[in-house]
Sequence to fold (744 residues):
Amino acid sequence: MSAPPLISVHDLCKHFRAFKRREGLWGGIQNLFVREYQTVRAVDDITFEIEPGEMVGYIGPNGAGKSTTIKMLTGILVPSTGKIISNGFVPWRQRTDYVKTIGVVFGQRTQLWWDIAVVESFKLLRRIYGVSQRDFDERMELFHQVLGISDYLNTPVRKLSLGERMRCDLAAALLHNPPILFLDEPTIGLDVVAKDHIRKFLRAINERYRTTVLLTTHDLDDIEELCRRIMIIDHGKLLYDGPLPELKQKLLRTKQIKFALRDSEAAGALQRALSSEGLNAEAVDEVTYRVRFDRTRVSTSELIRKILAAGDIRDLLIEDEPIEEIIKRIYAGESVMEVSTRA
Amino acid sequence: MSKSNILTVYRKELTDSLRDRRTLISMVVVPLLIFPVMSIGIGTFVGKMVLKAQAEVPTIMIINGENSPRIVADLKSDKEIQVVPTEPDYKQQIIDKKIRAAVDVPSDFDASLDHENNVGVSIYDYDGDLKSGIAAEKIEKHFDALQIATVKKRLVSRNLPPALVEPFSVKRQNVAPPEKVTGAAIGGFLPYFIIILCLVGAQYPAIDLTAGEKERGTIETILTSPVPRTEIVLGKFLMVLTAALCTGVLAIISMSTSFHIAKVVLSSSPEVGKALNFTIGLKAVAAVFIMVVPIAVLFSAGLLAIALMAKSYKEAQSYIAPLTILVVLPAVAGLLPGVEFNARMALVPILSTSLVCKEIVAGTYHWNYIAIIFGSTCVYAAAALFVAVSLFKREDVLFRT
Fold:
């Protein structure tokens, strides 16, 4: 039998009691006197295990329960029922000892001191986590090499760009060299270059220190570049847990190209050109069209060439299918998958 | 519990708060400005009003008195009043405040006096009007003096001693120390201001460190640090307390210096100098400070607990605004005349401190009350701190949906 998993989650549930609001003026008055509550199952009976050194993508639409799961895994929230053992700790019970062995980054919020030079925050964290000066210097050197943060160590956080701040936040989370890293939307709002930087860094620390990473994201590119395993959550339930290639084969085949014509006259010619490929251009508005295609069958570059040849194109955008669409298709049973294939 | 953790959190919050302009204004600028403005501004204003009221010589009219030139001349020579020519509508003129009062002297007043006949004098004034009342009093005083002089003259002419009608004399003497006299008047609202300022100073940091943190979303990042929640909230509490005490101390310093300055600046006019003739001694300053410490703890912990419940800065402000009234009310009650101590009142927080500080500034130390008030306020403060710490451990408070 192999070594026990680093993180094991069993039948995890988190229920909130939420106040149910009635609509309208009369409802508003009723709300004042008679309150109705409903139970929201933010996380509903989730089970999974993560091995040391794994990088796992955790995706789902807004409000699916990703952040709640992360908050339970980091010991901020106490589960309603279920069990979590992470790195040998029960997070909420042994929180202070446990969090010394994890790093956490919440993409939209910083743990750095807003008005003060970045390096001051690092010094504070060094004290809190009890990192020795030698280890601290060594880590700073690494962060400098891989993240290139030394240029703005003396800049107040509020003056940093989002990408720079995210690099500093990552460095802050890894200052105490934790074996586990939780990332909640680490690339949200970043430009392509900044995203690339962050991904490279994550790959580097995963290779160098075998740091286990669980990251939630909206961005399927994050997952594709970083993770071999993916978990999909919706309405608190785990819809899929398995290797990414398999999912890609079955569900992530669809891409879409959105393009805008300079005038609507060329639309007819375009329609004809596409239908010869067995594709259909849906009109978004008068000049904007959308084509969905299976990228395992149609080459993206070939398709773009066809579109450009057919008409005067003002703008063009290639997108993944939104995660919500993929989930819809899982529900529709378009691609029957075994949920929690690893469990 | 780790002291170093608490201090680390405290240091972080302190460094952060010192960069927050709102906190700095409420913590430093307000207490430093309010007392000089109050003491010099109000002092000058009140002084001028007093001088003006006292300097005014009321105008009066003499009705009749045609055949009594002696009393008319006598009244005209009184420097306390100014006699103006008589007009028939004197009553209306009193109502219109054109003259302050009128006196009806019978025509035969002089003759009646000579013949030792009783004679009636009427004074007309406007009841309830302060200046008219003062004028009437001055006329009355004039006739009282004349009455005594007349009696003495008659006794002398009959070879009788003046003590026959004046068997004794009564004189009132003030025993209250000079600081007590004004202490009762001015001293009442000084501690009240210090208490209010403590609350003001604690408000912004309390909101910023709780609801502000929730709003910025940084509460999660703090909670993932390996510092126990109790220590986080205690570090935050220390920061809020520092702000409250800093405001309180600056208020006390500013208050005592500005009153000294006001005394020097305004003592050029003796009347105003007299009104401000009291000093707040070092002992009183120290005592007021010691009494304010548990109040500051109570405010800091209470504000922290309330602001913790809020989801955003705005929400916290709307919770705390009515609380300010709750604090102002008992503090104002301490200002009311006739509110005296008893043991039960010593247990009412804020009111008791306000009252006892008023006494301290006025130079009286009720040691047993001071002990009860200090003790009871400490208990309230500890309870508030306990509530704040327990709330910080509750998931449904930290992550209200």
User: Anything to note?
Assistant: Chain B touches chain A through 22 residues (CB under 8 Å). Chain B has two domains: 3-43+179-398, 59-164. The first strand of chain B starts at residue 59 and ends at 64. The two ends of chain B are 30 Å apart (CA to CA).
